[in-house]
Amino acid sequence: MDSLHEANSESVPKDAEYGDKGSREFRVSVVGGASAFQVVEKITWNDGTWSDTQGTEQTLTIYGSDVSGILRFMRRPRDPENPEFFLVVLGYDTDKWCDLKVDLQARGTCACILRQYYDAGTPEYSIKQRHQKTATACLQSGTKITVTIKDDVLVVA
Fold first, then answer.
1. What value does the mean pLDDT of the chain take?
2. Number of domains the chain contains
3. Spatial strand order in the sheet of 4-6
4. Which of 57, 24, 14 is nearest to 152 (CA)?
């Protein structure tokens, strides 16, 4: 059974697989040009929760395997009718993985996109299966965004 829920919307069971803590935490650190963006949406897949913090630090806590979370970032340009969005995806099954989606429309929600990482045959599913550790893309404005996971930290720059 798959479960998709808003961050912190429900408590989830702990999994003894992760030791006495019963969980594993992945920190997301936003630096450089990416820090001009703010988190506007965050969700998890399966047994995970996002921290309540806002700003440049977020924490994804997982309670088992085949868990992922997604953060949607937005920056309002000088023209408020055309905000810029990008998504950062962080997951763990037998190993950690990450991805980046850029130039999304306002209606490209986290829920729609995160589900694609669990549908066999999609490019997103392949990224998850390969345990991708880094991704880079440019927004239409020319802003370059890079996500890289090392140890238990995902750096968004």
1. 82
2. 1
3. 4-6, 38-45, 67-75, 84-92, 96-102
4. 24
